[in-house]
């Protein structure tokens, strides 16, 4: 089961327990004054109301916690169910507050009625009235002391509950911080391996760049040598053409002889017609 779902189930159990405790307090408040002991029951009423208020504060805190957890549920159906549960809790909370208010009204009415009966008995004469007055004074003092002690204990308990909740929130914050740090460490490890691979790729690219530069340099040198060779040959042919043109213009050789020389190859050597131009052809 998911952690958030488990937390919601635990909240539901705590809600049921708190509601049951509040209903017991409401029932005790509503019956206050019906025992015929108006003063004693009137003194116990603040203690019962304090317990009821503690239960109401607990229910309100449970609603706030459920409201925070509902949106974190894993599925849409669970989110809808959690919202419906939160709505029913709010309605039940308002109903319980109304019941507590009505119970206090009923308790006040009962206490007033019991106090009236006690007043009538105390105002009556006789030894029984005197004994009752003494008992009431003794019980009132004891009840007042017990109520003050109970109120102190209730306040101490409330402070302890608040400290426990604060400690729980602090531990939850620490857990979240720890999980965030672990995720950050994992991401750092992933980036570290990526940087290592990137560094290796950069080294390979640098070596390849050096090889490319060497290849381009050698190719450029070979191309330059070929160009120089072609240019030198071209310059030699141009010089030969100029010599032939000069020889043709001077009449020492005719164009037909040049064509025949080219087509049939060089003729046998003739000392009479020997010329440097023929030798070059």
From TrEMBL:
UniProt cross-references to InterPro entries, sorted A to Z: Sec20, Sec20_C
Keyword terms, alphabetized: Coiled coil, Endoplasmic reticulum, ER-Golgi transport, Membrane, Transmembrane, Transmembrane helix, Transport
Coiled-coil regions listed: 86-120
Transmembrane residue ranges: 214-232
An annotated GO BP: retrograde vesicle-mediated transport, Golgi to endoplasmic reticulum
Domain (Sec20 C-terminal) ranges: 144-235
Domain of life: Eukaryota
One Pfam family in the UniProt entry: Sec20
Membrane topology: Single-pass type IV membrane protein
GO MF annotation list: SNAP receptor activity
Location(s), subcellular: Endoplasmic reticulum membrane
Family of this protein: Belongs to the SEC20 family.
Protein name: Sec20 C-terminal domain-containing protein
Gene source species: Lolium multiflorum
Lineage, opening ranks: Eukaryota, Viridiplantae, Streptophyta, Embryophyta, Tracheophyta
């Amino acid at each position: 089961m998911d952690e958030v779902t488990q937390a919601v189930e635990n909240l539901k159990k705590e809600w049921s327990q708190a509601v049951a405790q509040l209903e017991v307090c409401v029932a005790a408040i509503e019956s206050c004054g019906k025992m015929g002991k108006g003063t004693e029951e009137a003194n116990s009423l603040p203690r019962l109301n304090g317990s009821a208020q503690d239960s109401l504060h607990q229910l309100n805190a449970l609603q706030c916690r459920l409201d925070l957890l509902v949106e974190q549920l894993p599925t849409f159906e669970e989110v809808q169910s959690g919202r419906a549960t939160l709505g029913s809790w709010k309605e039940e909370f308002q109903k319980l507050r109304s019941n507590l208010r009505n119970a206090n009204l009923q308790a006040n009415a009962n206490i007033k009625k019991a106090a009236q009966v006690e007043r009538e008995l105390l105002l009556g004469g006789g030894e029984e009235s005197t004994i009752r007055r003494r008992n009431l004074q003794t019980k009132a003092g004891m009840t007042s002391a017990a109520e003050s002690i109970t109120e102190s204990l209730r306040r101490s308990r409330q402070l302890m509950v608040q400290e426990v909740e604060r400690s729980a929130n602090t531990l939850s914050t620490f857990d979240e911080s720890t999980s965030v740090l672990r995720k950050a460490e994992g991401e750092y490890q992933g980036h570290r391996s990526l940087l290592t691979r990137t560094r290796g790729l950069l080294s390979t690219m640098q070596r390849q760049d050096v090889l490319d530069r060497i290849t381009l340099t050698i190719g450029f040198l070979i191309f330059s040598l070929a160009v120089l060779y072609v240019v030198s040959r071209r310059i030699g042919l141009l010089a030969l053409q100029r010599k032939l043109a000069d020889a043709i213009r001077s009449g020492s050789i005719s164009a037909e002889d040049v064509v025949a020389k080219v087509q049939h190859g060089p003729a046998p050597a003739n000392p009479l017609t020997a010329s440097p131009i023929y030798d070059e052809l």
